[in-house]
Amino acid sequence: MTFAIDAKGLEKVYKGNVAALAGVDLEVKAGDIFALLGPNGAGKTTLMRILTTQFKPTSGEAHIFGLDVVREGGEVRKVVGYVPQETSVWSDINGYENLLIYAKIYGLPSQSRKEVIYDMLESMGLRAAAEQLVKTYSGGMIRKLEIACAMLIRPKILFLDEPTLGLDPAARIAVWKKLASFKMEFGTTVFFSTHYMEEANAYSDEVAIINMGKMVTSGTAEELKHSLRGELIKVSVSDHHVDEHTLGLIRGLKQVNSVVVADATLIVTVEDAETALPGVMDVLRSAEIPVVRIATTKPTLDDVFLRYAGTTRAPGAASTTERVEEEAGGDHRE
Ligand SMILES: Nc1ncnc2c1ncn2[C@@H]1O[C@H](COP(=O)(O)OP(=O)(O)OP(=O)(O)O)[C@@H](O)[C@H]1O
Ligand SMILES: [Mg+2]
Fold it and tell me: What is the pLDDT at residue 160?
């Protein structure tokens, strides 16, 4: 099987002896949307620059669709699109003119350039702004224009370094809709870095976390969250004494790791709250203990990030989400 990205033992030591990558192994399947997470300075941009042939690795090797990024750089560049972390369009010319420059750099045939550019502007929702100077664009429009530039050659793989940094939620959703549509329409592989855990959670097929130049974990977002184990079910009971016998029955359930009672709330530790909850409820129902409220907490990707890459999130950022479910409604929402 040919991977979209296949890297082994990549190391990068910058001048001044900064070891930005310290032996990175990576496999990305063709057609996947792959999220790269990691704290500031972890090596995300360095890795992307090597994979897009802008920097040479100090040692190790990497292939893009089987092409060696060092020995076959020219061929690699024909299948790669790249949207850097910093702004990559010119602000003193309009959107169309920006795309025209890229079309010339990429060597698109002159007779079809205009049509290709206007199609791309249309598909990114920028047709109406095509003749406007880029300095009048919003942040979201600029990011879309940069993606349009990178997509001009219909690359097999698109690298995006923090594609939605600083965008409002609506603009972020619009960018992601577009990226997902490239995957659907053209089978484009998308490799992106982000500090927004919820984006990695929502849009990626696979996630990897890099820390201090080393990959520390990878898998689907679900796998990574599950790997933390230890979800909680909190059941509030109305003014009712939960007797030792009932607690014993709950403790005896196969999936239950521990049970404690605090302020008329049972706190049950399980590996998977969704599958353990029915058993716990059955015991309480048989004991005729009225339930007022149920909440489950699951590890989030934030928790995974914190576990593997330390505490670099903004202070006050929530690390778990609480799902509250009313017993009467009985629906289990995510
Ligand atoms: N051109 C350079 N010369 C010297 N050191 C560099 C250079 N570029 C990056 N570094 C260093 O390499 C390390 C990795 O930087 P890199 O930009 O790859 O991190 P990053 O994960 O992209 O961080 P961020 O989330 O802040 O964008 C850092 O210690 C950084 O200071
Ligand atoms: Mg970076």
Answer: 96
Among the bound ligands, name the one nearest to the CA of residue 43: 1
Q: What is the token pair recorded at 44?
A: 């995300």
Q: Is 101 in the pocket of ligand 1 (CB under 6 A)?
A: no
Q: Give me ligand 2 centre to Cα 171, in Å.
A: 21
Tell me the pLDDT tens digit for each residue of 12-47: 999 888 899 999 999 999 999 999 999 999 999 999
Which atom, in ligand 1's list, is nearest to the CA of 195?
Answer: 25
Residue 114 falls within a domain, yes or no? Answer: yes
| Number of domains present in the structure of the chain | 2
Tell me, yes or no, whether 65 and 129 share the same domain.
Answer: yes
Name every residue whose Cβ is closer than 8 Å to that of residue 110 and which is 6 or more positions away in sequence.
Answer: none
What per-residue confidence (pLDDT) applies to 230?
79
For residue 326, the model assigns a pLDDT of 31
84 lines ligand 1 (CB under 6 A): no
Place of tokens 């082994």: 8
Rounded to an integer, the average pLDDT of 248-256 is 93
Neighbours of 50 (CB within 10 A): 25
Claim to verify: residue 176 and residue 78 sit in the same structural domain: yes
Q: What is the pLDDT of residue 321?
A: 32
- Residues 205, 233: one domain? no
Identify the CATH number of the domain in which residue 13 sits: 3.40.50.300
Range of the domain at 150: 5-219
Q: Could you tell me which of 53, 52, 3, 48 has the C-alpha nearest to residue 24?
A: 48
* CA 8/CA 25 separation, integer angstroms: 4
Instruction: Give yes or no: residues 95 and 9 share one domain.
Output: yes
Segment 111-156, tens digit of pLDDT: 999 999 999 999 888 999 999 999 999 999 999 999 999 999 899 9
Average pLDDT over residues 99-122: 93
141 and 29 both lie in a single domain: yes
CA–CA distance from 35 to each of 30, 58, 194, 210, 226 (Å)? Answer: 14, 24, 7, 11, 18
